[in-house]
Structure formats: structure tokens, C-alpha cells
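FORM 7B - TANDEM STRUCTURE REPORT

SECTION 1: FIRST PROTEIN
SEQUENCE AND C-ALPHA CELLS:
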Amino acid sequence: MGMSVRPWVLALKIAAAKERRLMESRNRATKQLGEGEEEDDLSQWVKKSRGMEATKKEEEKRKAEEMARRMTEQDEDAESDEAGAYTRSR
């Protein structure tokens, strides 16, 4: 006589195998660590980082030039005020 397999036990085994296949297919579709285009990601990060750094330097340079322009204008105004005060006092 053969062993009788319970139908619910067989159904559980089939469900477990189906779930395992589904998980494996999901894992295959997902890039794992160490796979893929690391060099591209790294080069893109470096390019972005350098671009941000260059933008920051340009902004700082622009602010410094603006500050220098304002200082020059203030100096010119102060000199003209002093010259006007000097000529009025004589």
C-alpha cells in the first residue's frame, strides 16, 4: 500500500514554491549591491559635485565683485563729500 498524501499538505508546498519563485523573480529584476553601472553613477556624482562647486565659486566671486563695487562707490561718495565740505569751509 502507498502512503496517502494529504491534499492540504500538498497545497501548502505548492503555495510555498510559488511564493519562492515570485520572490526570486523580484530579486532578479532588482539591481543588487555591487552590480550595475557603478562607474557611471560615480562619474555622474563627481560631475554634479564639481558643477555645484563651480556654481558656488561663481556666486562667491559675483558677491565679492558686488561688494568691491559698493566699496568703491562709497569711497567716491565720501571723497566727493569731503571735497565739497573743504571747498565750502574756505
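SECTION 2: SECOND PROTEIN
SEQUENCE AND C-ALPHA CELLS:
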Amino acid sequence: MIAYQRATNELANHRAERRKAEIGFESKKRQEAEELRRNRQEERRDAKENREIEHHHYAMALKAERLEQLIDRKSGAKAAKAGAASSSHAPQLVKVEPSAA
């Protein structure tokens, strides 16, 4: 009877240890999964931030280009207007060639 009790106790202890090991393994597995989820979420957040920064840079470059084009058009229009105004009021000089007749 003593041998039976000893074997039963050993079996119960072994089962308890195995259950604790499984619980620990599951807990560790759950922690690793949570850490992986957090890392992926952080990567997504960083990627989104990088896309927003890149979009901002492109938008600012586009606005700068549009502003330059607008300034060029206005300065070109002023030059053309000034040229037209001066040519309409200024006398025209015509070079006359002597005839060979």
C-alpha cells in the first residue's frame, strides 16, 4: 500500500509539474504573440508617419513650383505689357537704304 501511495503521489506531482509547464509555455507563447503584435503595430504607425511626411514634402514642392510658375507668368506679362506700352507711344525708327538707280 505504501508503494501505491508513493506512485500515486509521484504521478500527481508529475501531472502538476507538467500542467505548470504547459501553463508557463502558454503564458510565454501569449507574451511573445502580444510583443509581436505590438511591434507590428509600431511598424505600421511608423510607416504611416513616414508616408505623411513624404506627402507633405511633395505637397510643399508642388506648391513652390506653382508659385514659381505664377511669378514667371506675372513677370512675363508685365514685361510684355511694358513692351507693348512703350512700342505704341514711341516713334518707330526705320532705316532707309539709298537706292542704286
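SECTION 3: OBSERVATIONS ON SECOND PROTEIN
The chain has a mean pLDDT of 84.
The two ends are 152 Å apart (CA to CA).

SECTION 4: SIGNATURE
Preparer initials: ____
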